[in-house]
Write a structure and sequence with these properties.
This is Heterocyst frequency control protein PatD. The chain is an all-alpha fold. The chain has a single domain, classed as Four Helix Bundle (Hemerythrin (Met), subunit A), CATH 1.20.120. The chain is 85% helix and 0% strand. The chain contains 4 helices and no strands.
Amino acid sequence: MSLNREKYLAFVTLLEQLRSDATTTQIVAPELRQRVATLQQFFGQQIVPLADENWRVQSYQTEMSKQLRLLEIDVMFFQGARQASTVQTRLQTISDRLTTLIQYCDAILQPEAEGEK
């Protein structure tokens, strides 16, 4: 189970880095779009194959998949933003969605930390 934990932790690291960059730097739309694509690729290749028989983990993975698709749409809206206030609103929405994804990962990792199966 340690390898699974490492993959979730790596995913959380990617999510946190993107959230930090989206809120503290002047990130440009093409870079943001590329990094979201990288997140989706990592999720599809590293996280989805960890299909757990635990229904709770499966539920979180389903929600994470949905949130990643919505994140892609958020980035498209960000690309279309022209006014500074709209850009900031879109970046906040993206940050919030990344926070949700991080919370889902934390929820999956939590039982392992408590020694539950």
